[in-house]
Amino acid sequence: MSALSQDVSSDVVLDRVLASLDDDKAEEVVSIDLRGRSSVADHMVICSGRSSRQVGSIAEKLVDRMKTEFGRVCKIEGKDQGDWVLIDVGDVVVHVFRPEVRDFYQLEKMWLPSNAAEFGVRQS
Q1: Tell me: the pLDDT tens digits for 87-100?
Q2: How far apart (Å, rounded) are the C-alpha atoms in residues 112 and 109?
Q3: Taking the CA atoms of the chain, what radius of gyration do you get in angstroms?
Q4: Closest-CA residue to 21 (of 46, 53, 51)
Q5: Counting CB atoms within 10 angstroms of each CB, which of 34, 93, 111, 120 has the fewest?
Q6: Which residues of 25-49 are buried (b: 16+ CB within 10 A; e: fewer)?
Q7: What percentage of the chain has pLDDT greater than the value 90?
Q8: What's the predicted TM-score (pTM) here?
């Protein structure tokens, strides 16, 4: 393990989450800074996978990387269905969707203000 869970800032974890998603070809990645807006987490990341299989794989690899690199045991929900997987990394909450499910729920619209750039939203 390269770092202990409590020694790592949420920004460092976010950067590694985003790198993991990029490595696994997640699409339409959006990062939302929740600091000062929610006590649940510092960051929310929303992304898409092209299929149920890819959604599950993205989530599984992310959980493995967080455990290996930071010693974090993540909570994961929805992996068996592969439509919408929620990964709780502690200070970062990650949602991985199939595109049509993401379009249906439009989760980012609930959290993104109309002036999203002012609130630390990153898209890749």
Answers
A1: 999 999 999 999 99
A2: 5
A3: 14
A4: 46
A5: 120
A6: ebeebbbbbbeeeeeebbbbbbbbb
A7: 73
A8: 0.86
